[in-house]
Design a protein that fits this description.
Blueprint (H helix, E strand, L loop, with lengths): L1 H30 L5 H13 L1 H11 L14
Length: 75
């Protein structure tokens, strides 16, 4: 019984840590002044829907990977 409890506690600690990292990344996205409002929401949705890949891309490539910008100006 102790083995199962130990694994459950370990799983809970890992899950809480993982969730904390995702919340931290999303908060960093919304505090970044380089992004406009639409870009912030796109990044936040990407990190929430694809947490591992989205977080890695955010930290590795930054807010504008490959110089890509999203603009509302559709002239």
């Amino acid at each position: 019984m102790d083995g199962i409890l130990g694994w459950n506690v370990l799983a809970a600690v890992v899950a809480i840590g993982y969730l904390a990292v995702i919340v931290w990344v999303v908060s960093r996205i919304f505090r970044t002044e380089e992004l406009n409002e639409l870009e912030r929401w796109v990044w936040a949705i990407a990190v929430i829907c694809f947490p591992l890949v989205g977080s890695i891309v955010w930290f590795a490539a930054g807010p504008h990977p490959f110089g890509i910008r999203i603009s509302r100006d559709l002239r």
